[in-house]
Amino acid sequence: MGVIGSLNVQGYVVPLLLVSICSFMAASGTGPVDTSTALLIRVDQSGQGDYKKIQEAIDAVPSNNSDLIFIWVKPGIYREKIVVPADKPFITLSGTEASNTIVTWNESGEIFDSPTLSVLASDFVGRYLTIQNTFGTAGKAVALRVSADRAAFYNCRILSFQDTLLDDTGRHYYSNCYIEGAVDFICGNAASLFERCHLHSLADTNGTITAQHRDSPLENTGFTFLGCKITCAGTALLGRPWGAYSRVVFALTFMPSAILPEGWDDWGNPSRQSTAYYGEYKCYGPGANRSKRVGWSHSLSSDEAAPFLSKSMIGGRGWLRPTPTHFRRNSTIALVKADGNN
Ligand SMILES: *[C@@H]1O[C@H](CO)[C@@H](O)[C@H](O)[C@H]1NC(C)=O
Ligand SMILES: *[C@@H]1O[C@H](CO)[C@@H](O)[C@H](O)[C@H]1NC(C)=O
Ligand SMILES: *[C@@H]1O[C@H](CO)[C@@H](O)[C@H](O)[C@H]1NC(C)=O
Ligand SMILES: *[C@@H]1O[C@H](CO)[C@@H](O)[C@H](O)[C@H]1NC(C)=O
Ligand SMILES: *[C@@H]1O[C@H](CO)[C@@H](O)[C@H](O)[C@H]1NC(C)=O
Q1: Is residue 184 annotated as a catalytic residue, yes or no?
Q2: Active-site residue flag, 163
Q3: Nearest partner of 69 among 89, 91, 95, judged by Cα
Q4: Is residue 341 predicted with pLDDT exceeding 60?
Q5: Could you tell me if the CB of 289 is within 6 A of ligand 5?
Q6: Which strand (E) or helix (H) includes residue 306?
Q7: Catalytic annotation, pick one of 50, 123, 149, 163
Q8: pLDDT for the residue numbered 154
């Protein structure tokens, strides 16, 4: 996927994406009928947009909105702790490039309290953003919490050290994202597909990339990494079971020599060796050699891998919506600006 062109919206150039896999309409019956048109809200720290802060733009979206909302964030460093509340679905938050559109906060504490960006609303899309928690190495510090169904992230950078991405609940899709951390840095009980993502472990020794939290065999959750790349500062494990039925699959993923030969750990709880499901399928690179892997992990056959590769874990791709091609403006905002009162 890449930027294939741009659209000029009232003087603003909005990059258009080629999203070949996303050419379906939203499957949800309650969503907007027309997914090609969105209400555009511009965030610009210089004061030339509708709002200077991202949270102000989210606050302006009416509760239970039935419109697609496209919040376009001009490049800048936004020092904000942001919440997308549960009653504001169908918001897209889009930067221009992740390298220059940075949302940053510095907070440690409980995982539900510390996130820089908390997505509690369904049908959220994040694009071209860096989402960062700069707290550092001394404790839990979530950068992004996703606790809602049908969320997708494209070309984002998600940065912290411990519990970077709290991929909490719902079905999620991450495409071409960079995710960095050291301890359990992709954790939670969502059903998520990570495609063509780059996972970078910052730990000197014994980093843990995933801590998936599935608690019961009845839950249809787990993390699948498809066509990803792993890099490491020091040694790292692929995962350990936060929940007894933790489920993680790496497929067609590059693994460096820094991946510890055992690959997976039971987190001091041997009973989880028989309930957790950890699989690898056609991974490559010096760290992908499974000859010394823990015996309770699985080398998947094509048939065993198929359900994870077919996107069934995120409920198919019908809910992924294309980037809107038409934008309209909130006439009231324009009026307020024309009066010079905003
Ligand atoms: C549209 O403008 C009105 C009046 O200023 C405001 O109350 C509302 O929140 C705006 N909606 C959006 C989505 O910005
Ligand atoms: C939004 O929808 C919820 C659930 O249907 C309802 O409880 C709430 O009152 C609605 N809010 C507004 C402002 O209409
Ligand atoms: C983050 O905040 C802590 C105090 O809570 C402080 O010690 C640390 O220097 C801050 N880090 C950054 C990068 O601002
Ligand atoms: C890393 O894990 C290995 C195996 O569990 C253990 O022997 C070693 O002490 C750990 N190293 C550190 C620095 O925790
Ligand atoms: C995997 O590692 C084992 C032992 O460390 C070695 O004998 C084997 O040749 C390796 N396989 C590949 C494909 O490198």
Answers
A1: yes
A2: yes
A3: 91
A4: no
A5: yes
A6: helix 302-309
A7: 163
A8: 98
